[in-house]
Amino acid sequence: MKIIALDNSMLGLVTRCSTKAVLTLLKYQSKKPNGALQVGTLFHHAVANYLSGMEAVSVESTFIEEYEAQRGAFDAWLFMDEHLGEKPQYEIDNLRIILKEWLARHPDFTQFIPGLNIPREWVEINFELPLGEKFKIGKEWYLLVITGQLDALGEEGDELWTVETKTVSGIKPWWKLKFEGDSQNTEYSWAAEQTTGREVIGTYLNAISTAHVPDSTRTCYKHLYADLPQDHEPGNKHSKDHPMYSECGFLHVETEVFPITREPNAVEQWKKDTIYWAKKFVELWAQAGKGIIGATKTRTTGKFNETCLFCDYREWCIRGARDPERAASMMGVNTEVRDVRVGIFEEEAFYAKAK
To answer: Where are the domains of the chain?
Structure first.
């Protein structure tokens, strides 16, 4: 029997575009990644460190160290002046303001969410859990194992909740709505129930906007000097009541914690959907085994659901005409090392490595 190990990220790729899923398995990436994923990872680490008991000042210094370390871990494009000129929100000074404000709004890590107790050992929980019964494709038997990492678990009285940190360019009503039926949060609720043997009520979303913090000398009419610390010396020559954006920029940082609950039948439907797409993954895994030639044999389903618009591989797929000989020159290499296992493994080897 073989083990199909899948996390939510790969499941999402399989559902959106077969070509993108295979190219991801082959470790290709854009030559000019936009940085959102790397920035999100930085904030995930920072929140995890804080919930694990690290002092705020150490959380901030570790965040800066990890940012600097990424210069050598990822494509230099992420830190080139040209890229940061296009995306000033990813400059360390901007990200540092956002993190400092998030920490200031949650001064007690034990009460990060009022009333929710998050034990330190419940922060960043890796899981590999079998889903359903084994099934047969052709002559081979398979068992699906769902892999991933819970950001945190917390207790609110007798109720158990998962906690997930999400970074986004702006916290909009439509963005919050998408989590009501989001696969990842359903998966994580199921994983938490399997891990603890307890019912999970829902998920607390810890949303952090990584948008550029306004810092101009223009007058901000949203805030008053009364909104700033008492020891702040007003510096706006054009208004005695309203500060400049450079004075109140930190107040424009968007952060929000909000709950998401699930209908009782949501997990059961998620199980059926996941097993369906896992069978599709078996086909794509075989294509990935053929290298870049295999990628050319897949369907570009992204063109039917607008996934191509922001895809890392659009240059090769569209302008490169999916030419295998142009793959190396039009795409970069993803060197990220992940803790979560994804792929198809022989049963004995999979569980031997787990030990």
So the answer is: 2-151+264-354, 214-251
